[in-house]
Hints:
Strand 4 (110-113), helix 6 (119-132) and strand 5 (138-141) form a beta-alpha-beta unit. This protein folds into 2 domains: 7-207, NAD(P)-binding Rossmann-like Domain (Rossmann fold, 3-Layer(aba) Sandwich); 216-301, N-(1-d-carboxylethyl)-l-norvaline Dehydrogenase, domain 2 (Orthogonal Bundle), CATH 1.10.1040.10. The chain is an alpha/beta fold and 308 residues long. It has helices at 3-14, 32-43, 55-76, 81-92, 101-105, 119-132, 148-152, 186-198, 214-230, 236-247, 253-260, 262-275, 286-293; strands spanning 24-28, 47-51, 95-98, 110-113, 138-141, 161-165, 175-180, 202-207. It is built from 13 helices and 8 strands. It has an 8-stranded mixed β-sheet with strand order 3-2-1-4-5-6-7-8. It binds 3-hydroxybutanoyl-coenzyme A. 3-hydroxybutanoyl-coenzyme A binds next to helix 3, helix 9 and helix 11.
Amino acid sequence: MSFTTHILRRGLSTxxxxxxxxxxxxxxxxxxxxxxxxQVTAQAGCQVTMVDQTDEILQKSVNTISKSLQRVVKKKFxxxxxxxxxxxxxxxxxxxxxxxxPGAVANTDLVIEAIIENMDIKKKLFTELDKVAKxxxxxxxxxxxxxxxxxxxxxxxxxxxxxxxFFNPVPxxxxxxxxxxxxxxxxxxxxxxxxxxxxxxxxxxxxxxPGFIVNRLLVPYMMEAVRLVERGDATPRDVxxxxxxGAGYPMGPFELLDYTGVDISKFVIDGWHEKYPDNPLFxxxxxxxxxxxxxxxxxxxxxxxxxx
Length: 308
Ligand code: 3HC
């Protein structure tokens, strides 16, 4: 047996060559998903670089992380506020920011993209990053509804590409969907799962299909709730109360639509309708279209189905 074969066999049987350690993560996009991902990664002791277009956006993201950590500390160090401050300082020390995406990925183990849900912009970004990231760097997208396979197709690292779909609010939601495209290698998949474990998340594995598992069920459910209201069968408030008290959901569908952003759901449903026009579950909603055209996008704009 040659030395290489021996090492390969040993590696495969012990897992040594199957997984790479993730010590540095670059999160592209400092919105609510991006800053949540950066927070939980930094909390797990990894170094994180958060990238966005301007320093103002990045400062806002850092402030959001700091506020979220205050909520954690309030419970964890209720009796010892100075220890809490130290805890926050330590975590914030693991986070750096940059407006230069190619510069930020030069020496990273994992890139997690959490930018605007626009395929062309994502492809442009991955094309650019693929040229400068080291060979072993794994690329992942946090897209909620776009094709990972299509994004990966513009890179020379399709075997080191996958989806990591987090849920809002990231620090609280325990799940990450790990999405495999046909080209994703076992080593890449194992590394992604191990990273999720390290940051305290539970993973499920799924193929690259529209909405993966959660959104494929959740989005049609929310759309059915909207159609129920459009028909005048019940009010948003009554539907929310019904689903919270009758089905045990932490939020009703309208509270959730407002929480995640009415525009986000519109984007998802419009995209799926365009791709699968014969599926009635994916039909667009006049009420959602009206709210979005009026700028009533939910909590972030102060009004959606409810006023805040
Ligand atoms: N950071 C840190 N802690 C947070 C937090 C954050 N961002 N948000 C909430 N918390 C903590 C609070 O400190 C509080 O802790 P305590 O009870 O120990 O004091 C606890 O969470 C509960 O918070 P609240 O009292 O403010 O409110 P709730 O009890 O309603 O919980 C919730 C908030 C966790 C958001 C809960 O309502 C929930 O689970 N809602 C459903 C969310 C959901 O379905 N998310 C998935 C959306 S789909 C998605 O993300 C897909 C994507 O593709 C769009």
